[in-house]
Amino acid sequence: MILCGGSGTRLWPLSRKSFPKQFSAISGDETLFQACVRRFTAPEFAAPWVISGSDFRFIVKDQLAAIGATAQATLIEPQGRNTAPAILAAALLLDQTEPGALMIVAASDHVIPQDAQFRAAVLAAVPTARSGQIVTFGIKPDRAETGYGWLELSHPTADFAPVAQPLRRFVEKPDMARAQAMLADGRHAWNAGIFLVTTTDLIAAFATFAPQILQGVRASVAAIQHDLGFSKLGATDWAALPDLSIDYAVMEKAPNLSVMPYNGAWSDLGGWEAVWRDSSPDAAGVVTHGNALAIECTDSLLRSEAGSLQLVGIGLENIVAVAMPDAVLITTKDRAQDVKLAVTQLKAQKAPQAETFPRDHRPWGWYESLALGDRFQVKRIVVLPGAALSLQSHHHRAEHWIVVQGTAKVTVDADVRLISENQSVYIPLGAVHRLENPGKVNMVLIEVQTGTYLGEDDIIRYDDVYARGQGAKG
């Protein structure tokens, strides 16, 4: 069970609500989500169940296809309700077809470099989980970390050898003094938030400790709708569920808890300081990424995600600098966790950078805004081979399309034609239109919008192959 519905705001501006960190290639060439799928691609593991939000369903599908993987099921949450309802919904559905199935529940945004070693730890925990225990995984700590919850082991093993044992207790995120004491005593581990459990035992735990959540999730599962390969949970009952993590709902109350120690590398990439640490800093403690240049810097992260933007740091110490096409973050590493404060204030100011990127991913491809002014906007639109935008119209804007790569099939009211490179077409205000890519390569065009209102919600859909309904994204 792979959870990938979070917003990842602690890695702003790279990670935002519209395209969170799990779908980005932060560490290596693959995205964190793809790396998680590969981690559990082995003979002992079935194909994954993926739990995500509606806005990400086609991103999930595309990223799975890019690595040659498929999901047994992709569950769509009508809205975010934290991990307890999401995991329970997956367990209930799995239990319908495979009663008592054993499932490993993992977040999609963790970094675990030694895949085989971690799989071995999971397999070593199987007998304990089969015996009726809920097994959580405890990471051998290498520092006094205040950003993680901790676990107290009952029988610490030498070098955290993978031997399952009863969990003594959970420890909330500690202050520095408490974290240093737990690091020194050798009896504590970081809580990875990954666990192994049978559907029978998990459902029973909810029945005992969170019966109202169980009742609501059962009702939502009963109202599930299957469409385009996705399973959409019933929205009405889901909306009434509490926003609650699996830890608070059942894990911290259940008596049948065990922990499997793990002594390999692990990170939840919970902030820019964690990205710096896990990116192999050089002898001066410096990490650069993209078009970034560090001159006489120490203990710093410089990362440019804008291809045409050169980021240069001179004489920096203990600094995180992240440059995106539309936003730049500069902070000291010890304040990097406070980036959420920036997101909160940007949202209050209604700044689009708080949650959205200039590039917006859609099931047919993506677009990005190149220029925006009074009564006009210029976009680059990329349509994937065989893909099509919805049949639509606008109340407030007209559009002019210029094809710069590939061939576009364009519908404007009753007129349907092919537009090749260097050709253009005008879409009058109110015209019913559609854009398709009938070719074998990406089709790229420049769109010039003019009108009194240029918001993405100025759209009426008459037909859509992706069943998105009305609204900016449907």
Overview in brief:
The protein has helices at residues 32-39, 57-66, 83-97, 115-130, 176-185, 199-209, 211-222, 235-239, 246-251, 272-277, 339-348, and strands spanning 2-3, 49-53, 73-77, 102-107, 134-139, 150-153, 165-171, 188-198, 225-227, 230-232, 257-262, 286-289, 292-295, 300-304, 311-314, 319-323, 328-332, 359-362, 365-373, 376-383, 391-393, 397-405, 408-412, 415-419, 424-427, 433-436, 443-451, 460-463. The chain is an alpha/beta fold and 474 residues long.
Give the tags.
474 residues; alpha/beta; 11 helices; Spore Coat Polysaccharide Biosynthesis Protein SpsA, Chain A; 23% helix; globular; Jelly Rolls; five-stranded mixed barrel; six-stranded antiparallel sheet
Structure overview:
With 474 residues, the chain is an alpha/beta fold. It has three domains: 2-262, Spore Coat Polysaccharide Biosynthesis Protein SpsA, Chain A (Alpha-Beta Complex); 272-340, no CATH class; 359-463, Sandwich (Jelly Rolls), CATH 2.60.120.10. 23% of the residues lie in helices and 31% in strands. The chain has eleven helices and 28 strands. It has helices at 32-39, 57-66, 83-97, 115-130, 176-185, 199-209, 211-222, 235-239, 246-251, 272-277, 339-348; strands at residues 2-3, 49-53, 73-77, 102-107, 134-139, 150-153, 165-171, 188-198, 225-227, 230-232, 257-262, 286-289, 292-295, 300-304, 311-314, 319-323, 328-332, 359-362, 365-373, 376-383, 391-393, 397-405, 408-412, 415-419, 424-427, 433-436, 443-451, 460-463. The strands form six sheets. A six-stranded antiparallel β-sheet has the order 18-19-20-27-22-25, with no helix packed on it. A five-stranded mixed barrel has the order 5-8-6-7-11. A four-stranded mixed β-sheet has the order 12-14-16-17. A hairpin with a 2-residue loop joins strand 18 (359-362) and strand 19. Helix 6 (199-209) packs across helix 7. The longest helix is centred in the N-terminal third of the chain and has 16 residues, at 115-130. It starts with a strand and ends in an 11-residue tail after the last strand. The mean pLDDT is 94.
